[in-house]
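Many introductory courses stop at the sequence. We go one step further.
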Amino acid sequence: MTEATGRRLNMIEAINEALHVMMERDPDVVVFGEDVGYFGGVFRATAGLQKAFGKHRVFDTPINECGIIGAAVGMGAYGLRPVPEIQFADYIYPGLDQLISEAARLRYRSAGEFIAPITVRSPFGGGIFGGQTHSQSPEALFTHVAGLKTVIPCTPYDAKGLLISAIEDDDPVIFFEPKRIYNGPFSGYYDKPVEPWARHEGSEVPEGYYTVPLGKARIVQEGEAMSVIAYGTMIHVAQAVCREKGIDAEIIDLRTLVPLDIETVEKSVKKTGKCLIIHEATRTGGFGGELSALVQERCFYHLEAPIERVTGFDTPYPHSLEWAYFPGPVRIGEAVDRLMKA
């Protein structure tokens, strides 16, 4: 990793900078999607890129997710490094066949003759009153597919470094961006003032090129009382709850779900003896179930209490009851209390 002078950026700025760095370094990197060109994307993550690199490398597409991913597969096979954007993760489903049947299997099916060096960026998650069609967390669907990598940053520093690593990777990467924390970390206390990234150490972003390796978790804070395993927005919520309760928890940010740094998780749980898993996606079939199984398999004789999971519910994301669905401080706090009493 190459370090440079750090500045304070929000996550949108860090993502934009990663794209700019890679487009400058590699003429084969192209960016496209709905409104990403002249408009700069609905969240402005691609602002200024078309002006800097031209319409042949940063361009708008029709509202056709299947076509966006299909075009990316062809580009990757012919030597480009496409970075398509799906405007909201809720709309990625029409492109699933292209991602699963084509991109994820291309290297295997061609015996290494072709690769699919595609990075699919997409905002995901709730906390913005987006309702059922703008708040979904579909990450578990992609972790099930051999050949796909799934990446989720939780700070601007990681967002830039992980995105650069993803673009350089020769395999297809799903890069989910937690839109609730685009402009600042979120404690889960929706009725409190928003904290800007400028006050958070994770907003110190080096200039120029650097990478954060895929498949390496980050220990956000060390502790002895329990291991809290999470990613994305939930890292900040977990930190806020543990801080408020005065719990000496070890909090682990997975960063990438596939490849998974299970060794860091295992070492932590064997040390603390207790495990809390948190994610915003629905409970049934969520990635937390896989994490729970892995912890049980590897740490059974070290566990002092049942593994706790705090997740979204098995319903569409409700607009009017958003904060009841969101795994916030109340439900996380109850799980922490159960573990501490065990």
